[in-house]
Amino acid sequence: MYVCLCHGISDKKIRKLAIDEGITDIRGIKKCTALGSQCGKCVKLTKEILAETQYLQVQKAS
């Protein structure tokens, strides 16, 4: 699903960056992509995706 329509960034891209690059916050995502640089409507959902991804990674580790 597209999270950022302005720049065509998907939830898969966000999850991949979180897992592969260890990005845990919106600032890290913004450094790697243009997410949130236009209308900003995607920021809240991106934070939720990052939190969910972190939670799932912790669950896998335990």
UniProtKB/TrEMBL annotation:
InterPro entries with a match to the protein in the record: BFD-associated_ferredoxin (IPR052371), BFD-like_2Fe2S-bd_dom (IPR007419), BFD-like_2Fe2S-bd_dom_sf (IPR041854)
Cofactor: [2Fe-2S] cluster
Keyword Repeat: no
Pfam family, one: Fer2_BFD
Entry keyword set: 2Fe-2S, Electron transport, Iron, Iron-sulfur, Metal-binding, Transport
Domain BFD-like [2Fe-2S]-binding: 2-52
GO molecular function annotation: 2 iron, 2 sulfur cluster binding; metal ion binding
Top-level division of the source organism's lineage: Bacteria
PANTHER family found in the cross-reference section: BACTERIOFERRITIN-ASSOCIATED FERREDOXIN (PTHR37424:SF1)
Family membership: Belongs to the Bfd family.
Protein name, as recorded: Bacterioferritin-associated ferredoxin
Natural source organism: Vibrio paucivorans
